[in-house]
Write a structure and sequence with these properties.
115 residues; 38% helix; alpha+beta
Length: 115
């Protein structure tokens, strides 16, 4: 059994970048992948045949529909990324993301000045 699933019994899916770094958030994995030479992601589903766990992979994958359900903010982040080709900073609110998408204007993150 995959060590990630052993360490996180409630997790049924995670994402792995080409440098083998695991992420529970697809968005976080995509952000990290952009910094790598090979930008591909692998979706790891508990029990999937591809990950040699063999138990109930087909049922889990079907139940998850190979993609976890997105929160409204995550859906806006995905829509923003599709429209502008970059993942928005986590600090942006749903309202800001929605407005940017509607207006077709990229958002600019404010620099962190806390030191």
């Amino acid at each position: 059994m995959d060590q990630i699933f052993k360490d996180n019994p409630k997790v049924d899916i995670y994402y792995k970048t080409s440098d083998d770094t695991p992420f529970f958030s697809k968005n976080a994995a995509q952000n990290h992948a952009k910094t790598l030479e090979q930008k591909n992601l692998e979706t790891i589903v508990r029990g999937s045949v591809k990950n040699s766990e063999g138990e109930k992979g087909a049922e889990v994958a079907k139940a998850l529909n190979d993609e976890p359900k997105l929160t409204p903010k995550q859906q806006l982040q995905a829509d923003y990324e599709k429209k502008f080709g970059e993942v928005p900073a986590e600090e942006f609110t749903k309202a800001e993301l929605s407005e940017a998408i509607e207006k077709g204007e990229k958002l600019v993150a404010k620099p962190n000045t806390d030191q």
